[in-house]
Each structure stands twice: as structure tokens, then as C-alpha cells.
Amino acid sequence: MPKPLPYKKILLKVSGEVLMGDSAFGIDPTTLARVAEDIAEVVKTGVELCLVVGGGNIFRGVSLAGHGVERATADYMGMLATVLNALALQGALENKGIYTRVMSAIPMEAVCEPYIRRRAIRHLEKGRVVIFAAGLGAPYFTTDTPAALRSIEMGCEALFKGTSVDGVYTADPKKDPTATRYDTLSHQDVLTRDLKLMDASAISLMRDNKIPIVVFSIRERGNFLKVLQGEGVHTTIT
User: Fold this and answer.
1) b/e sequence 25-48, b meaning 16+ C-beta within 10 Å
2) Of 22, 191, 208, 237, which has fewest CB within 10 angstroms of its CB?
3) What is the pLDDT of residues 30-46, one digit of tens each?
């Protein structure tokens, strides 16, 4: 018998950098297909799944701010990058037979639906994957805060953060070979130790609403389902 899953409704936050694969910029088709395959594998277990994807593989608003472009304008450009990634993920998921809806906080009806909370919940109830794009539709936020907010609005039982690293470490393991991984942390630990896992506002929202965060590497094929089953290498914040 398949192992029962601890969560029935989750939000997956995927960093835009993951979609680059080994490229320096943009979307790597092979990586995109592999990530979609992992997501499809989880959806087929019956879990209700929604997604927030970053845009760092295409554009980072904060990188242009201060170089002749106003921060708010640069942030809006970053939000549009998340729409590109969301549409790419939608296409890859539907290629795997998974019904998907993209909902944008910035209305652009020609390519996706505007974000309406009750409609999003209905899509999830019908077994569709909902991809939330364009952040909150407001500048000065990264995609961490909308991921936290949408997980609360959708009534998710956990937020899964798929990154290039297999958990939360005492320091950046790519720069510090002595860094060690945490198995578990509290939300308050993340804030007081300034671990840079997510924005402080996002961590605070998760803490106040008692929603756990599971950090894992989505680069490893099949790891999403393993971690959802409580296996695989990951860090749980609860």
C-alpha cells in the first residue's frame, strides 16, 4: 500500500533560479520538464496543490533599482518575469496531463485569469493546479510574502519551498563547507538567527497562522514526493 500523505493541500514555492538548470539565464527546457514531472507525480496522489514561482532566472527588480530605474518600476518588471515562468510551468504541466490555471495579481486577461480567492479555491477543489503569478501586484515584496499569504488564503496545511539546496543550513553551504543542515527549526528560530530562508514578513505570517514550512531541493528527480511522504533530505520549520 502507498504511504499515506500527511498533507492534503499544500503550496509549493519554486525559486526562479531552479528553472535555469545549468544555464546562466532564462528557462532550461529539460529542467522545466523535470520539475513539471515531479509536480505531476504529487498531484496524481490526490493532493490539492497550488504554486508560486519566482522570477530571478529572468529578472530581479532589486538588481536594477538604484541604476537609473525607480525601485517600484523595477519590482513591477520582476512581477512580469514571474508571469513568464508561470505560463511556462502551465504548459509543461499540461503536457503531463495536469489541468492548470494561472492567476495573476496584475490583471492580464489575454494570457491568464485575474486572482480571485474563491475562484482559486474552486479550481483546487476540481483538482486543478493553480499557479499564482505577479506576486501581490505591489512593489517592495519578494515572492516569499505572496507565497505565505496565498498558502493562508487557500487553507493550505504546509508550504513547501523547492530550492537548489536540500534544506536550511547554518550558513550558505555553497560558500561555507563547514555549514551544517538543520533537521527542524521553529519559525522564531529562523527570525532570531536571521537565517535568510524567506523574508521576515513571510516567516511571521507562517508563524502566526501555525503553518509549517518544508525546505528541500527540487533539483533532485522525485524528491518532492519523497519529502512529502516524510522521507528524503529536508528541513521542517514548525
Assistant:
1) eebbeebbebbbbbbbbbbeeebb
2) 22
3) 999 999 999 999 999 99
| Closest of 134, 136, 131, 133 to residue 149, by C-alpha | 136
pLDDT tens-digit series, residues 76-88: 999 999 999 999 9
Q: How far is CA 181 from CA 165, 170, 221, in A?
A: 10, 6, 20
For every residue of 76-107, DSSP letters joined together read HHHHHHHHHHHHHHHHHHHHTT--EEEEESS-
Q: What is the pTM of this model?
A: 0.93
| Cell numbers placing 225 | 514526493
Domains located in the chain, CATH noted = 9-237 (3.40.1160.10)
Residue type, 122: R
Tell me the C-alpha distance between 135 and 38, whole Å: 23
Q: Whole-angstrom Cα distance, residue 143 to residue 32?
A: 19
Dist. CA 221–CA 83, nearest whole Å: 24
- What's the grid cell of residue 9? 493541500
The Cα 58–Cα 16 span in angstroms is: 8
Taking residue 145's Cβ as centre, other Cβ atoms within 10 Å add up to: 22
| Residue carrying C-alpha cell 528524503 | 232
Selection from 73, 77, 71, 90 nearest residue 132 by Cα: 90
Cβ-contact 40, 68 below 8 angstroms: no
Helix (H, G, I), strand (E, B) or coil at 63: helix
